[in-house]
Amino acid sequence: MRPLTEEESKAVFSKLANYVGKNLVHLIDRSDTPHCFRLHRDRVYYVSESLMRLAVSVARPNLVSLGTCLGKFSKSGKFRLHITALDVLGQYAKHKVWIKPNGEMPFLYGNHVVKAHLGRITEDTPEHQGVVVYSMNDTPLGFGVTARSTLDTRKLDPTAIVVFHQADVGEYLRDEDTLF
User: Which positions fall inside the PUA domain (predicted)?
Assistant: First the structure.
């Protein structure tokens, strides 16, 4: 377990900024308890400093997980967000998409969100922006990237893709052997 290097921090913060925007400051400067980012076995964890200090006494081979896993670095050095980051993203998300009940299951099976399943979308959402996908009763289901801006979405036909799927809570069941 070690702090992130400058390059790793840039990769993590640029990916998080795509979803939370300027709310990224709230992740770093928390008023309740200070939190930090730590790297352990190519995975980035968001952990309180008090828990991090306690984890120092555990040997590296014995430490399995620590705090909230935000994602991992691939072998090529790119950072990929995991579905375990949904709680953090959902809390600070700048742009949101709500899908109708008939669109929840297709999204949870790993499909993109189409216009027919779109319930609401945050105003002024640009194209290729990270969004958190919610059900109509405000339960976070996953996250993705918008295919079109809010204005362009209104003109689309019902079968056009609005949000490209990135991750959803159904991954716990589909990829349980590779997720952890």
Answer: 95-170
- pLDDT mean across residues, the chain: 90
Query: Which CATH number characterizes residue 51's domain?
Result: 3.10.450.220
How big, in percent rounded to 5, are the helix, strand and coil portions of the chain?
35, 30, 35
Single residue among 34, 64, 89 that ends a domain in this structure: 89
CA distances from 33 to 4, 29, 49, 126, 165 (A): 20, 9, 8, 33, 33
pTM above 0.85, yes or no: yes
Q: How far apart are CA 89 and CA 142, in angstroms?
A: 9
Place of tokens 């716990």: 172
Give the per-residue pLDDT at 177.
64
> What does the DSSP 8-state code read for residue 32?
S
